[in-house]
Automatic annotation (TrEMBL):
SUPFAM superfamilies tied to this protein: P-loop containing nucleoside triphosphate hydrolases
Functional note: Involved in beta-(1-->2)glucan export. Transmembrane domains (TMD) form a pore in the inner membrane and the ATP-binding domain (NBD) is responsible for energy generation.
Gene Ontology terms for molecular function: ATP binding; ATP hydrolysis activity
PANTHER family: ABC TRANSPORTER I FAMILY MEMBER 6, CHLOROPLASTIC (PTHR43204:SF1)
Family designation: Belongs to the ABC transporter superfamily. Ycf16 family.
Domain of life: Bacteria
Keywords: ATP-binding, Nucleotide-binding
PROSITE patterns: ABC_TRANSPORTER_1, ABC_TRANSPORTER_2
Stored Pfam families: ABC_tran
Protein name: Fe-S cluster assembly ATPase SufC
Nucleotide-binding keyword on record: yes
Location of the ABC transporter domain: 4-248
């Protein structure tokens, strides 16, 4: 059974249709890259899958592990194993990164009927994960993303992913605004999370991320649809010739 099934998905925002019958299947253990120009619907897809308010689904189905995602609240989707790394992570002054992570993780565990982590157990787990991602311990004591550089914010997203251990990770332009060193660190964190039971959807404009995280499948989106799918070679073709060739197909 596929991990994620998107079938004939139509989505409107403020009365304007953004997704026009989109289809996508993601199997367990696979990394999919979704590429496309601005306005093609990439981020809309990620927001609809994870349950962000403000999107009207007018037709289609969203199944995760065979269950209807559209019947679940965002927190229920997260507890089922969905994770979204934001393109623009928000700042939360007054809440330390460590407290935020422990509260969020224990809320998910409670929703699954599992016991929460004690403070010592969580501290050990968080510090180990932070060390693997080259995140200074001092970052864990600071307000969530407050004063963080772009690279630090993205590494913090990957730290959350490592701690929550989701079944499906959606990375919405995780590479945007990163210099080459930060990109490598983030990519190393993503690669460390790859497993036969975990799938990823990487949304990106550029091929450079795919030099470090090699996808199993590449999809091209244009005007609210997936218009072509292939392997990493498709991303290289896009880098060379751009997206204009797919507008007619859309």
């Amino acid at each position: 059974m596929p991990l994620l099934e998107v079938r004939n998905l139509h989505v409107c925002v403020e009365g304007r249709e953004i997704l026009h019958g989109l289809d996508l299947t993601v199997n367990a253990g696979k990394v999919h890259a979704i590429m496309g120009p601005n306005g093609s619907g990439k981020s809309t897809l990620s927001h609809v899958i994870t349950g962000k308010p403000g999107y009207q689904i007018t037709a289609g189905r969203l199944l995760f592990k065979g269950e209807d995602l559209l019947a679940m609240r965002p927190d229920q989707r997260a507890a089922k194993g969905l994770f979204l790394a934001f393109q623009y992570p928000v700042e939360i002054p007054g809440v330390t990164t460590m407290n935020f992570l422990r509260t969020a993780l224990n809320a998910q565990r409670k929703a699954r009927g599992q016991s929460g982590y004690s403070t010592p157990h969580f501290l050990k787990k968080a510090r180990t994960a932070a060390k693997q991602l080259n995140i200074p311990q001092s970052m864990l004591k600071r307000g969530v993303n407050v004063g963080f550089s772009g690279g630090e914010k993205k590494r913090n997203e990957i730290l959350q992913m490592a701690l929550f251990e989701p079944d499906l990770c959606i990375l919405d332009e995780i590479d945007s605004g990163l210099d080459i060193d930060a990109l490598r660190i983030v990519a190393d964190g993503i690669n460390a999370m790859r497993s036969p039971d975990r799938s990823m959807i990487m949304i990106t404009h550029y091929q450079r991320l795919l030099n470090y995280v090699v996808p199993d499948v590449v999809h091209v989106m244009s005007k609210g649809r997936v218009v072509k799918s292939g392997d990493k070679q498709l991303a290289l073709e896009l880098e060379a010739s751009g997206y204009a060739q797919f507008e007619d197909a859309a």
